[in-house]
Amino acid sequence: MTNTSILSKPTIIFHWLIALAFILMIPLGFYMRATYNLELYYYHKSIGVIVFGLALARIVWRIREGWPAVDDSHPRYELILARITHWILILATIGMPLSGMMYSGAGGFSLHVFEWVIIPPNPSPDDPDKMVPYNDFIYRLGVFGHTKLVYVVLAALILHVIGSLKHHWLDKDATLKRMLGLNR
User: Fold this and answer.
1) Is 66 helix (H, G, I), strand (E, B) or coil?
2) What are phi and psi of 118, to 5 degrees?
3) What confidence score (pLDDT) does residue 1 get?
4) Contact 51, 101 (CB under 8 A)
5) Are 55 and 93 a contacting pair, CB within 8 Å?
6) Which of 118, 128, 151, 138 minimizes the C-alpha distance to 48?
7) How far apart are the C-alpha atoms of 154 and 116, rounded to whole Å?
8) How far apart are CA 5 and CA 184, in angstroms?
9) Where are the transmembrane segments (predicted)?
10) pTM of the model
11) How far apart are CA 136 and CA 132, in angstroms?
């Protein structure tokens, strides 16, 4: 069975909005850690919370709309690898922002969407420049998830892009055109 199904506009828009956010936020995160630019943290956190909301909406939409048909003309190992990669990315769209919120919010660093404060900062009474975690376990779990699992997400993202380009250039199928909304 060849997959010729047309994807809905919301599916395509959710995919590319979240993809663009991840493509921008991951290098920004690495840069922030290297430079400790506090102004960038402000934007990174705000956009991360928004991405979390978009990811939840995307998942609800995907459940409502159903999954695209699978092109089973490809070798079994490719289908398995594609399924694993897609699930890692779907879980990452929730896991990366959630772990960032755990890192920042539970760590006492504050959580906000631009000027709207969701969790206020928790400065140390002895040193107001040092933040005290609200919950050390959740904070440490968030740090691990946000700073270590990003490498798994990055590998899956690279594999996803390579797979898309393979479909387009080598297999010459319509997978990439579908995701760009060009097969209408």
Assistant:
1) coil
2) -95, -45
3) 33
4) no
5) yes
6) 118
7) 30
8) 10
9) 12-30, 42-61, 81-103, 137-162
10) 0.90
11) 9
Q: Detail the DSSP E strand segments found in the chain.
A: 111-113, 116-119
Across 7-26, average pLDDT: 95
Please check whether residue 51 is in contact with residue 21, taking contact to mean a CB–CB distance below 8 angstroms.
Answer: yes
Please report the pLDDT score of residue 108 as a whole number.
98
> What is the pLDDT, as a whole number, of residue 67?
85
Cβ–Cβ contacts within 10 Å for residue 35, how many? 9
Helix and strand element counts for the chain (H, E):
6, 2
Contact 104, 94 (CB under 8 A): no
Q: What DSSP state is assigned to residue 129?
A: T
Q: What is the DSSP letter of 174?
A: S
Written as one letter, the residue type at 91 is L
Instruction: Give the SS3 label for residue 112.
Output: strand
Q: What rounded mean pLDDT belongs to the chain?
A: 93
Distant-in-sequence, close-in-space partners of 174: CB < 8 Å, separation ≥ 6? 3, 4, 183
CA distance 87 to 101: 21
pLDDT in tens, 71-94: 888 899 999 999 999 999 999 999
Measured between its terminal Cα atoms, the distance across the chain in Å is 19
The type of residue at 120 is: P
